[in-house]
Amino acid sequence: MGDLKINQLDQSTGLYTKKNTHYSIFGSEGPFLIFIHGVGLCGDIWEPQVRYFSTNYRVITYDFLGHGFSASHSKSPSIDDYVEQLNELVNSIDISSFSLVGHSMGAIISVAYSLKYSNKINALIPLNIVYNRSSKAKEEVLGRANLILNSGEIGNIDQTISRWFANKTDSAHIKKINRVRELLLDAPLKGYGNAYKLFAESDSIFKNMLHNLECPVLYLTGSDDPNSNSKMSQEMASKTPKGLTKSIDNEAHMMAYIAPEKVNPIIEDFLKENE
What we know:
About 40% of the residues lie in helices and about 15% in strands. The chain is an alpha/beta fold and about 280 residues long. Helix 8 links the parallel strand 7 and strand 8.
């Protein structure tokens, strides 16, 4: 996580569960708060959140299946495989309850986990979640996933960056965007492709299940996100008993990373209201 080492926040980084999930813990006191990254990325993407929350929370980041330093699955993984990976991590640390934040594919995993293990979740915040997209949009995503799996190349990175970081052009933004570009170029192809394909196919799996979410949920997205628009979050919130939704103006798919000054306080307020 770059210069986090300077701040001595990495005393518990580089850890592994028995099933080779790579994870890190930041902070020594407070409630547990777990972050799940999206496709092609890794736990390092949550650096702005680690800095912000680790004073008052015990923050856990990890690399999901086939990403970062975590092991790949022996077969093409299902959503439940990602859920059970997280549950193995939770059990290995012996956490009885925690709040959960997931981004994009990580948001889908976070909802699936909360449906299966509702007794463990204090509050749930899916960021930029995709829900019930059109058939055309789904086919486009599936096509990009199959291209990765079949060609062994991660193509169209410039298009991905454009979708993820709409209208971010100043020098500070460009530096952070280039870091994401590096992560995508370094992503393990099999893990990236498998997760991306599942991401393309899984946006409707909660269609008749959201009424079973028992915890408080905040669906948070950006007004400029072409992947996860506010209508998707509003629809999910309307079907969730304790569901709320909020859209952040002038932000796109990677808003938690590129604009943490907008996102982190909203997450913090929701957590405080539901601890």
